[in-house]
Amino acid sequence: MNISEATIAILGYGNDLRGDDGAGQHVARIFADRALPRVRSLAFHQLTPDLSQILSEVELAIFVDAYAVKLNSTSPVPDTQLHRLVPQSSTSTSNHSSNPAELLMLSRVLYGSTPPAWLIAIPALNFEFGWAFSPTTQRGIQQAADAIEHLLDSHRP
Q1: CB 135 within 8 A of CB 25
Q2: Separation of alpha carbons 64 and 148, rounded Å
Q3: Among residues 115, 100, 120, which one has the least CA distance to residue 58?
Q4: Are 77 and 123 in contact (CB under 8 A)?
Q5: Sign (positive or negative) of CA dihedral 127, 26, 14, 75
Q6: Nearest 5 degrees, angle CA 129-CA 52-CA 33?
């Protein structure tokens, strides 16, 4: 599917060579394999400014990423988090990677369009080299998939 045919973009990102950090890409691939109508699911190592064009062409954007957590014997296992995003400028001088809020702002500035957007943040413990996900992240991946299903259901025409 061409991105111009899609009305929803799922953008999963993170380093898939660093254990749990690849959870966002993994979720994006799950939805890419489903080949849902109107949905374009893409996996990236990092978000870059050129992705702002994709955002300008869709009606809904869903970002998926891992976030680092530290557990001890008394801390509860954290859940996957869902955050509504708003366009926001950054004071960062890096031009190699962006965050979702910056991309939304760039989409607004360059293309005059910004879709409603969500960030799904999956808890991550293991950032060592490798491809295995920790049990916490495996649980978070399922929670992320459920959250995406809910967002897709609420966005049906």
Answers
A1: no
A2: 9
A3: 115
A4: yes
A5: negative
A6: 55
Q: Identify how many contiguous H helices and E strands the chain contains and give both numbers.
A: 4, 5
Residue whose token pair is 């045919």: 5
pLDDT tens sequence across 71-123: 887 888 889 999 999 998 765 545 546 899 999 999 999 999 999 999 999 99
**Which of helix, strand or coil describes residue 3?**
helix
Cα–Cα distance measured from residue 39 to residue 30, given in angstroms and rounded to the nearest whole number? 12
Sequence-distant contacts of 151-157: CB under 8 A, at least 24 apart: 151/60, 151/62, 151/118, 152/8, 152/36, 152/39, 155/7, 155/8, 155/59, 155/60
pTM score of the predicted model: 0.91
CB 128 within 8 A of CB 19: yes
Q: How many CB atoms lie within 10 A of CB 59?
A: 14
What the block records as the tokens of 111 is 């293309």
Cα separation, 115 vs 104, whole angstroms:
8
Which DSSP string corresponds to 35-65? Answer: T-TTEEEEEESS--GGGHHHHHT-SEEEEEE
In a 3-state reduction of DSSP, which class is residue 66?
Answer: strand
Rounded-to-integer distance, Cα 70 and Cα 85, Å: 25
The residue type at 101: A
